[in-house]
Amino acid sequence: MANIKSQKKRALTNLKRQNALAGEKSALKTAIKAVKTAAAANDKDAAVTAMNQANKLLDKAIVSGFKKKNYVARQKSRLQKAVNNIA
Fold first, then answer.
1. What is the dihedral of CA 31, 37, 40, 43, to 10 degrees?
2. CA atoms of 68 and 27, how far apart (whole Å)
3. What parts of the sequence cross the membrane (predicted)?
């Protein structure tokens, strides 16, 4: 632990932020997995619903700052392609 008062505060702030973002990251991974699972099962309705949720979380990820915009664009493209290829 740091000796400087401001660094002690910063360490606590970083820890709080890390814990807050952990939930968001987990929810994003779960949403992406739900789209892939529904697409693999050829369930168009579930895939579209999951896709909407994933898009919402991906957009939040950019605003929160824990995912880059190119990562989000790539994921959206891949997921949309998977949904569109359902028979």
1. -80
2. 17
3. none
